[in-house]
Amino acid sequence: MNIKGFLSLPHRFRWGGMDGDDCMTFAASWALHAVGVDPAEGLRGTYRTKDEAHAIMATHGGPQAFMTGKLLAIGCRRVKQTRDGDIGLVRMLAGETYDDVRVTEVGAIRFGPLWASISPAGVIARRAEMIAAWRLPT
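Given the sequence above, the corresponding structure tokens read:
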């Protein structure tokens, strides 16, 4: 399945990556669809809130170290020049409610000049500041 097909699927926001995705498991679900390996395997369903998700990432050294460990383990490699389908850690406006919106780090998927991620409102695609990016194994 290509990235356009994946993004057009019905998606819903759910902390913990069960019966939906959060801002980190969304990119992991893309990896599962694209290459058949889930970097979030073993984590899905082990948390249910933003605070619990952040605690898991903190125990791994923060979002970038967390994503690096999970993605390298499935054969991804770091890239500086991105292309469609690459997974990234990006800074973008995000939040669970309008009152909660702020610049935050989220997992996202490169789609043309934009980064696609999931929010409580559904899939969003916008320009974002890339912190790190990984290419899926072929």
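The first strand starts at residue 77 and ends at 79. Try to locate this feature in the token string yourself.
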